[in-house]
Amino acid sequence: MHAIRYVAADLVLCESPDGWSLHAPGSTDDEIASGDAPYLVCGEGEGEPTAADYRAAMRELARRRGD
């Protein structure tokens, strides 16, 4: 069996007037809204996540999955 590897493009970006958050691949709007898909990383205010934010989200995703 091969480990499944995700790339940053698979992450789900959620944006709001208050900021943004990155969630695990496959997270749905309902799961994000209910808290069943907690964010991996988030940022406040205007703007979008940086490459460093995506790398941090990928590290957190791997940590949560036990990789």
Large-scale geometry: globular
Order of helices and strands: EEHEH
Number of helices: 2
Q: What is the rounded distance between the termini?
A: 14 Å
Largest sheet: 3 strands, antiparallel
Uncertain segments: none
Return the domain count. 1
**What fraction strand?**
15-25%
- By secondary-structure content and strand pairing, the structural class works out as alpha+beta
Fraction of residues in helices?
A: 25-40%
Give the rounded overall mean pLDDT.
88
Name the strands of the widest sheet in spatial order.
1-2-3
Give the C-alpha Rg.
Answer: 12 Å
Find the count of extended strands (DSSP E, 2+ residues): 3
Structure in a nutshell:
By secondary structure, the protein is of the alpha+beta class.
Question: How would you sum up this structure, described in words?
Answer:
The protein is 31% helix and 21% strand. The mean pLDDT is 88. The protein contains two helices and three strands. The protein has a three-stranded antiparallel sheet with strand order 1-2-3. Strand 1 (12-16) and strand 2 form a beta hairpin. The protein has helices at residues 29-34, 51-65, and strands at 12-16, 19-23, 41-44. The chain has one domain.
Pick out its properties.
alpha+beta, about 70 residues, 3-stranded antiparallel sheet, 2 helices, 3 strands
Strand and helix map with partners:
Layout: E1 12-16, E2 19-23, H1 29-34, E3 41-44, H2 51-65
Antiparallel strand pairs: 1-2, 2-3
